[in-house]
Amino acid sequence: MGGQELAAIYDGPPRNTAQWLQRGSLDYEDAKIISGRAYWTLQFAVALGERFTRPKEPNMAVVEELLREQAPGRSLVSALAVHLADLPPIVGKQEFVAMIVDEDAMHGLPRLDHALKTGTFPAPDWKLSGSPLWLLDTALEGAARMNAAPKAKPLVIDAEVEKSLREGTYAGPGSVILTRGVAKKS
User: Fold this and answer.
1) Is residue 30 part of a domain?
2) Does residue 74 contact residue 67 with C-beta atoms inside 8 Å?
3) How far apart (Å, rounded) are the C-alpha atoms in residues 40 and 129?
4) Which residues on neighbouring strands pair with residue 91, listed in sequence order?
5) What is the number of domains present in the chain?
6) Residue 82: CB partners within 8 Å, gap ≥ 6?
7) Do 9 and 51 fall within a single domain?
8) What angle in degrees, to the nearest 10, is found between the helix axes of 159-167 and 136-148?
9) Which domain holds residue 137?
10) Both 80 and 100 in a single domain?
11) SS (HEC) of the chain
12) Between β-strands 131-135 and 32-34, what pairing exists: parallel, antiparallel or unpaired?
């Protein structure tokens, strides 16, 4: 779950996630960082209410709706059993562009967006807090489809970046949350 979904589970606006982070009820240690954004498992999200000064109950109707949207056919029990360490390799746009040899964000992101619009690249496996996310293997399939397109500039996958994404050791673009505003100045 992204920040928007996490807040919705507790019937709050998206800004609540930032407040929970500031107050220490929530931290990034429990999240997977993808394309510079934090994502938490459903299991963690449902248990989060116990951490608040005044404990809150999750809105299970929202949880079930999110489950229907993001994992059709998956049972609530099986979704709640998934821990952070159980997640498969997942990438966003930044990680995808980083996998391409000799590609930078200025050229790679518009190229990916074009491939998404034309259907050359697969639709996201998830769309959380407005961001598209893919299983690594889906993204690699998308790269192959982009290469098969007529007049396509060949995409060469950086094997080291792919390996680091698979092993959970990736430290390239999108692997950290960049601080902004007042927090950045200190």
Assistant:
1) yes
2) yes
3) 12
4) 134
5) 2
6) 41, 42, 43
7) yes
8) 160
9) 90-167
10) no
11) CCHHHHHHHCCCCCHHHHHHHHHCCCCHHHCEEECCEEECCHHHHHHHHHHCCCCCCCCHHHHHHHHHHHCCCCCHHHHHCCCHHHCCCEECHHHHHHHECCCCHHHHHHHHHHHHHHCCCCCCCEEECCEEEEEHHHHHHHHHHHHHCCCCCCCCECHHHHHHHHHCCCCCCCCCCCCCHHHHHC
12) unpaired
Structural tokens at position 101: 């040899």
Residue 130 lies in a domain: yes
Judge whether 180 lies within some domain: no
Judge if 126 and 158 occupy the same domain.
Answer: yes
For residue 112, tell me if it sits in a domain.
yes
Find out whether 143 and 155 touch, Cβ atoms under 8 Å: yes
Q: What is the pLDDT of residues 98-142, one digit of tens each?
A: 999 988 888 889 999 999 999 999 999 999 999 999 999 999 999
74-104 confidence digits (pLDDT tens): 999 999 999 999 999 999 999 999 999 988 8
Distance CA 4, CA 14 (A): 5
Q: How far apart are the first and last CA of the chain?
A: 29
Residues in a beta bridge with 128: 131
Specify whether 12 is located in the same domain as 70.
yes
